[in-house]
């Protein structure tokens, strides 16, 4: 089972290891986010207790999640750290990272419509 955050459109090659056959020594994949959360979580055998009760959207969510996985005896392999989009600064950074994307186009269009008209 793989959970991918919908607020991380710049996945690109970062997600590839999860989509290939998993090495025998990997029970879980963890993609940390810059804000302390995560953008991806993959587990070989789905089990809701691995994440149930972990507070989300906090700067220690990722650390707590990895701790829970390891406490369950899972061998966790990290994925690259990415920025998810939780605010405007994140959106600007992601749009710059993937300038040809729909995310960047939508941001540019929103910025144009929000700009004051020239007099």
What does it look like?
- This protein is of the alpha+beta class.
- The chain has a domain at 2-78.
- 32% of the residues lie in helices and 14% in strands.
- It contains four helices and four strands; from the N terminus they run E-H-E-E-H-E-H-H.
- The longest helix is centred in the last third of the chain and has 13 residues, at 102-114.
- The chain is elongated and about 60 Å long.
- The chain starts with a strand and ends in a 5-residue tail after the last helix.
Write a short abstract of this structure.
Helices cover 32% and strands 14% of the residues. The protein has helices at 16-19, 61-71, 88-97, 102-114; strands spanning 2-4, 28-32, 38-43, 76-78.
How are the SSEs ordered, and which strands pair?
Elements: E1 2-4, H1 16-19, E2 28-32, E3 38-43, H2 61-71, E4 76-78, H3 88-97, H4 102-114
Parallel strand pairs: 2-4
Antiparallel strand pairs: 1-3, 2-3
